[in-house]
Design a protein that fits this description.
By secondary structure, the chain is α/β, with parallel strands linked by helices. The chain has a single domain, classed as Metallo-beta-lactamase, Chain A (4-Layer Sandwich). It has 5 helices and 14 strands. It has a 7-stranded mixed sheet, with no helix packed on it. The chain has a 7-stranded mixed sheet with strand order 7-8-9-10-11-12-13, with helices on one face. A hairpin with a 2-residue loop joins strand 1 and strand 2. The chain starts with a strand and ends with a strand. The relative contact order is 0.15.
Length: about 270
């Protein structure tokens, strides 16, 4: 697979037959009055002989850029998978020029959904969702025989100021969906023999704003799910956090054969 970190949480995963694009916000400038800045990146150069599927985890401006709908102008085979919280009223559709003819190329999913999506050009992808601890969903995808996970904003958001009750509820709301993923990975279509299928690429959050709890979410994922390669997202351009994590967990990562990709800026490319 070819991987391109676009910016912030935006990721392209290119398989043999498909371009899978998650939380792409190209053309969506970050507000300069915010304390934290996210990188945006440019739309990757796509192999137009392949079908392209856009995934949107939720409606926050650092995860959803309406410019993704422009792809209908230059791609023959394009499909959209949206979280149900993404605004999609008749007025919104009119502003985006989404017509009835476009609707067969759009799926809207809520948490704990299991879908085989028949793409209009003949390919099929399997999509599992879990509800996020923030807004929207996270996606577990089976496409071209590859298993890919994008967390969206599903993370252990353990803000100390929330207090013990908040933190206990947050932990419960995080762990339950991840346990669900562990079960799903041991069942068809991911596994045919009951052994957990490995996630080849997991896009997981490393958000320095949580300070003392920055590693808690990614640690939980790696302890609960069989993951081969991690692409850190949601770093607010603080890419050094990846190096810190790799040093802090070097023994664990080596023992379990987990590879952590190092993002150095917008539109970084990797092969796995």
């Amino acid at each position: 697979m070819r991987i391109e970190y676009i910016g912030h949480s935006g990721v392209l995963v290119e398989t043999e037959r498909l371009n899978l694009i998650f939380d792409c916000i190209v053309g969506q400038p970050a507000s300069e009055d915010k304390e934290w800045f996210y990188d945006i990146g440019q739309m990757p150069e796509l192999d137009k002989s392949k079908g392209t599927v856009f995934f949107v985890s939720h409606n926050h401006g650092d995860h959803y850029g309406p410019q993704i709908w422009d792809a209908r102008d230059y791609l023959d085979n394009v499909y959209y998978v949206l979280s149900k919280d993404v605004h999609f009223s008749s007025g919104v559709r009119a502003r985006l020029n989404i017509t009835e003819a476009d609707m067969p190329r759009i799926s809207r999913l809520k948490g704990y959904t299991s879908n085989d999506i028949q793409l209009p050009w003949g390919d099929t992808i399997h999509v599992e969702t879990i509800p996020s601890t923030d807004v929207g969903v996270a996606y577990l995808i089976l496409a071209d025989g590859h298993t890919i996970y994008h967390a969206g904003d599903h993370n252990l958001w353990l803000w100390e100021e929330g207090g013990e009750k908040y933190m206990a509820e947050m932990t419960k709301n995080f762990m339950g969906p991840v346990e669900h993923l562990a079960t799903v990975l041991s069942q068809p279509p991911f596994s045919l023999d009951g052994a957990p299928a490995q996630i080849e690429l997991a896009c997981l959050l490393l958000d320095e704003r949580i300070e003392g709890h920055i590693y808690d979410g990614i640690d939980a994922y790696l302890n609960m799910l069989p993951i081969k390669t991690v692409l850190p997202i949601h770093q607010w351009q603080e890419y050094f956090v990846t190096d810190n994590y790799k040093r802090a967990r070097a023994d664990f990562l080596a023992e379990h054969g987990i590879n952590i990709l190092k993002v150095t800026g917008e539109n970084c490319r990797f092969e796995i």
